[in-house]
Design a protein that fits this description.
Blueprint lengths: L7 H9 L3 H11 L5 E4 L4 H12 L6 E4 L6 H14 L4 E3 L3 H11 L8 H19 L5 E3 L16 E4 L4 E4 L7 H10 L51
Length: 237
């Protein structure tokens, strides 16, 4: 995959000091519309990315993973977003047979039993559908920011994602939360109302609560786990 770039480190250094719009322009110039996709979870960072790409008149392909356990407020946000921009978001779903089998074997809400069971649920509902949707793609764009968690503090604006064998592009890597909100408000982007109810990171409905620690944006995710490195597996290398 990296054969298309002579030196990833050199490219990372070059893009590190570029703004998000410039990086998006580079991305859509470097890859054809069939090769690149924006993965949008309808958290505010992803919506900033989508707005920038649409404003830049890029040929945008946007997908979202519907785990079938999202908050109704996320579905409402998707509808408002599609109406605002006049686009259709590609919705990716988990395999129903795999979900039924997992539920039959481990019972409903097995993710509460152990971290292993929770990660298995995330795998079938999120990671595997994402991997399938990225098949044949050469790059995907995310809204990841270094400020979001300890695990993400070293992400690059462009990096090799070895898990999915694809280039991952993170234009907002160096943005602060305040910068994200400033953009959302300036562009009048319809965002999920759960943010107004104390949520700072939004995943599946049964696994997400309002933030329990103001200093930890992801403290409302899988709140029953004591491990500080809480991830679903989509962004692990």
């Amino acid at each position: 995959m990296m054969g298309m770039f002579h030196d990833l480190n050199e490219l990372q250094q070059e893009l590190e000091h570029q703004d998000a719009e410039t990086i998006l322009n580079w991305a859509f110039t470097s890859f054809s519309p069939e090769e690149i996709v924006i993965a949008c979870s309808f958290q505010i960072e992803d919506q900033v990315i989508c707005d920038m790409a649409i404003a830049g008149q890029h040929d945008v392909s946007i997908l979202t993973i519907d785990t079938l356990r999202l908050n109704q407020e996320i579905y409402d946000t998707i509808r408002l977003f599609e109406n605002k921009y006049g686009i259709r978001v590609q919705k990716i779903y988990p395999d129903s047979e795999e979900i039924q089998k997992m539920t039959a074997e481990k019972k409903e809400n097995s993710f509460l039993n152990s971290k292993q069971d929770r990660e298995a649920c995330c795998f079938f509902r999120k990671v595997k559908p994402l991997a399938k949707s990225l098949t044949g793609k050469k790059a995907w764009i995310t809204g990841l920011r270094r400020e979001q968690s300890y695990n993400r503090k070293c992400i690059q604006k462009i990096e090799q994602d070895t898990r999915f064998n694809i280039i991952k592009i993170n234009p907002l890597a160096d943005w602060t939360l305040q910068e994200v909100w400033d953009y959302i408000k300036k562009q009048n982007i319809p965002y999920c109302v759960l943010y107004d109810r104390g949520y700072t990171s939004i995943g599946c409905e049964p696994c997400t609560r309002p933030a329990t620690d103001p200093a930890d944006i992801r403290s409302g995710r899988w709140w029953w786990e004591t491990d500080s490195s809480r991830e679903c597996g989509m962004h692990e290398k």
